[in-house]
Amino acid sequence: MTTRRSVLGDVHVDRAGAATTEFDRPFQELITEAAWGHVWSRPALTKRERSMITIALLAALGQDDEVAMHVRATVNTGATREDIREALLHVAIYAGVPAANHAIKIAKKVFAELDAEKAG
């Protein structure tokens, strides 16, 4: 849970926890343990590197909401806008231009939201 909070932020994790029901509690426990407790907590890659890989994979799979969430999370992982751009260029070549194009639109929207939040 510590890693999940450090990447996604307390607000997101608290919101997910508040929305959890008996039906999806096992799923939430699974992703917390497997994704955050095992994969994201391994020492071989930095959070920045994991962020770039995750965004590229989610973009290639067309997982729009997850792309947006992980682009937003880069404020916590250290992945820069340039890092995201480079990851999405790889998506264009290896997973297809339409997937990358759509993910770029999502990233631009998230960046605009982050910039507006920063401006106050």
From TrEMBL:
Q: Which residues form the Carboxymuconolactone decarboxylase-like domain?
A: 27-108
Q: Does the keyword Lyase apply?
A: yes
Gene3D superfamilies (UniProt xref): AhpD-like
The Gene Ontology terms for molecular function here are: 4-carboxymuconolactone decarboxylase activity
In terms of domain of life, where is this protein from? Bacteria
Record-listed E.C. numbers: 4.1.1.44
Q: Does the keyword tRNA-binding apply?
A: no
Keywords, alphabetical: Lyase
Family annotation (Pfam families): CMD
Q: Which NCBIfam families match?
A: decarb_PcaC (TIGR02425)
Full protein name:
4-carboxymuconolactone decarboxylase
